[in-house]
Structure formats: C-alpha cells, structure tokens
Amino acid sequence: MRRLQESTEELIALFKARAKAPPNQQNQLLVRHLRCKESLELSDAVTSALARYHADNVRALPAPTEILPPLQ
Predict the structure, then answer these.
(1) Residue 48: its H or E element
(2) Residue at 47 is within a domain
(3) pLDDT truncated to tens, each residue of the chain (72 aa)?
(4) Cα 22–24–16 angle (5° rounding)?
(5) Fewer C-beta neighbours within 10 Å, C or N terminus of the chain?
(6) Is residue 49 part of a domain?
(7) Has residue 3 been placed in a domain?
C-alpha cells in the first residue's frame, strides 16, 4: 500500500509540473485556431452543410459560387 501512495504522490507532482510548463508550439497553434472567430464560423458552416447534404443523401457538395471563378 505504501508504494501505491508514493505512486499517487509522484503522479500528482508530475501533473502539477506539466500544468506549470509552457505549452509547446503545436498546442499554442491549436489554441489560437480554436479561439479564432473565423475558424469557428467556418467549422460551423462546414458541419451544417455536411449535415444538410448528408441527410438528403447527396454524394457531392455543390461548389461555392462566391469562392470559385465562373467556368468559361
């Protein structure tokens, strides 16, 4: 039982040390992305489009006309 308590204390100390450490570059990028209003709006638009078109059993999403130039 003594070893289990030591392990628990070691884990708590390890978690506290990790919590105090600065985030790595990948985590900082992810946090910045998740806080970006445009990213959140885009993910919401994609999610709602997928739900809408998946429910109709359509295989392909139509191309957004405001992004793509007209075909010639």
Answers:
(1) helix 37-55
(2) yes
(3) 556 666 888 989 999 998 888 888 888 888 888 888 998 898 899 888 887 776 655 566 666 666 666 655
(4) 40
(5) C
(6) yes
(7) no
Considering the domain boundaries, does residue 28 fall inside one? yes
Residues in contact with 39: Cβ distance below 8 Å, sequence separation at least 6, in sequence order: 33
**The domain containing residue 28 runs over which residues?**
23-57
CA distances 63 to 2, 18, 30, Å, are 64, 45, 28
Using CA atoms, how far apart are residues 18 and 4, in angstroms rounded to an integer?
21
DSSP the chain: -HHHHHHHHHHHHHHHHHHHSPP-HHHHHHHHHHH-HHHHHHHHHHHHHHHHHHHTT-SSPPPPTTTSPPP-
pTM, two decimal places: 0.40
